[in-house]
Specification:
mainly beta; SH3 type barrels; globular; 3 domains; 6-stranded antiparallel β-sheet; 25 strands; 5-stranded antiparallel β-sheet; endopeptidase fold (from Nostoc punctiforme)
C-alpha cells in the first residue's frame, strides 16, 4: 500500500502524515532545507555504494526527517521522492530562489567575467537567488546571493515556463550521456528526461517510469501517436518527437537520442518486450 519512494516510514521514524496508517516509534513533520550543491544523488539507504534512485538540483526544497552519521533522510519538494543524501549537501538559511537555469548546462564564475576560473557548473532546472546585475564587455551577468555570477541569458524567473512544448526542451539534451538515476543536464535516464523536460514546461509528473505510466493520461493506439505523446515499456519511457520518431535517454546509445520508432520497438523488444502503453498526458 505504501511505497518507500513516496512515503517516509521506518520502524523508528515516519513522516507525520502517515500517523495512524503505518507503525513507527515516532512521527515528525520534518524541517525544510534546500540543496546547496549543483547535483546530489538521492539513495535508498545511507550508503555511498548504494545505487542512485534519482538526483536533486541546486536550490530545490526538501523536507528533512532525520540526520545521522553525515546523512539526511529527506523528501523532495518537487516530486515527493524519499531517500538519503549527504547532510553536507543541504543548507537551511538560504534566500528563496528567484531564477532557474534554462539551458542544459551553465557555469558559475567568481565574478562577472567569463575569463575567470569557473567555480561550478549548474544543470537546467537549478534554482538560484539573484541579488544584482552587472555587465562586462557587453555580456550581462546575474550576481548570486551566495557569491559568484552566471550568464543572465541562461536564466529565467523561477516560475517562468521555458517552452510550452516539452519535446522542444528534451531536444536540447540530445547526446547528453545516459545515467541511471540521472536527472540533470550532466546525465539523464529515460524518466529523468521526461520529468525534467515537463518540469521546465510548467508541468509536474512523478519521477519513475511506473509512476509516470500511472499518471492521469489518455490511452492511445499506435496509429494515434503524435508529438509529445509518451510510449512506455516495462522499465522504459520515451517521447514521440513526431509520429515516426522516438526521443529517449537509453542504454543502447548511452545518450539521449532520436530513433525511428518502429525500429526502436523491434530493437527493444528482445529485452523489454513490446510497448505496454501509449499515453497522452492530461493536465
Amino acid at each position: 500500500m505504501f511505497d518507500r519512494r513516496l512515503h517516509a516510514f521506518r520502524p523508528d521514524l515516519a513522516e507525520q502524515d502517515l500517523e495512524g496508517r503505518v507503525e513507527a516509534t515516532r512521527f515528525v513533520r520534518g524541517d525544510t532545507a534546500r540543496i546547496a550543491t549543483p547535483v546530489v544523488a538521492l539513495r535508498p539507504r545511507p550508503d555511498a555504494a548504494a545505487g542512485i534512485d534519482t538526483e536533486l538540483l541546486l536550490g530545490e526544497e526538501v523536507t528533512v526527517f532525520d540526520r545521522a552519521d553525515g546523512w539526511a533522510w529527506a523528501k523532495a519538494g518537487e516530486d515527493g521522492y524519499v531517500g538519503y543524501l549527504p547532510e553536507a549537501a543541504l543548507a537551511t538559511e538560504v534566500p528563496a530562489p528567484t531564477h532557474r537555469i534554462a539551458v542544459p548546462r551553465s557555469f558559475v564564475y567568481p565574478r562577472a567575467e567569463l575569463r575567470s576560473p569557473v567555480v561550478k557548473a549548474l544543470s537546467m532546472g537549478s534554482r538560484i537567488s539573484v541579488i544584482g546585475e552587472e555587465e562586462t564587455r557587453g555580456t550581462r551577468y546575474f550576481l548570486l546571493a551566495d557569491g559568484g555570477a552566471v550568464i543572465a541569458a541562461h536564466c529565467l524567473p523561477v516560475e517562468t515556463v521555458l517552452d510550452t512544448d516539452p519535446v522542444t526542451i528534451a531536444l536540447r539534451f540530445l547526446e547528453t550521456p545516459y545515467l541511471w538515476g540521472g536527472r540533470s543536464g550532466f546525465g539523464l535516464d529515460c524518466s529523468g528526461l521526461v520529468q525534467l523536460s515537463l518540469m521546465m514546461a510548467g508541468r509536474k509528473v512523478p519521477r519513475d517510469t511506473d509512476m509516470q505510466a500511472a499518471f492521469p493520461a489518455e490511452d492511445l493506439e499506435r496509429h494515434d501517436l503524435r508529438r509529445g505523446d509518451l510510449v512506455f515499456w516495462k522499465g522504459h519511457v520515451g517521447f514521440m518527437e513526431d509520429e515516426a520518431t522516438l526521443l529517449h535517454a537509453n542504454g543502447h546509445t548511452m545518450t539521449v537520442a532520436r530513433e525511428n520508432f518502429d525500429k526502436a520497438v523491434e530493437r527493444i523488444g528482445w529485452l523489454y518486450q513490446y510497448p505496454t502503453a501509449y499515453r497522452r498526458l492530461v493536465f
